[in-house]
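in:
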């Protein structure tokens, strides 16, 4: 289910960014999705949905921003994941 929200911001922001409102709102969603993903608050799939992208598009976007989709707390987690692959 989609939820609609209202976002208020100074009109000068659009002028400063030289963007239209639709692009600005889309970009806010993408930035939020990336941030929540990096904080491990959303999965790749959930973040992609928030960003209105497919998982593949979102993963490619992350790669373009040099953000790894492999999030391990420590070396042991990485080695365990490799062992179980």
């Amino acid at each position: 289910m989609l939820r609609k929200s209202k976002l208020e911001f100074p009109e000068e922001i659009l002028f400063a960014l030289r963007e239209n409102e639709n692009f600005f709102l889309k970009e806010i969603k993408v930035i939020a999705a990336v941030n929540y993903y990096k904080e491990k608050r959303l999965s790749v799939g959930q973040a992609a949905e928030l960003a209105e992208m497919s998982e593949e598009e979102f993963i490619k976007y992350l790669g373009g921003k040099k953000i790894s989709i492999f999030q391990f707390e420590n070396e042991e987690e990485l080695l365990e994941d490799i062992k179980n692959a």
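note: DSSP finds five helices and no strands in the chain.
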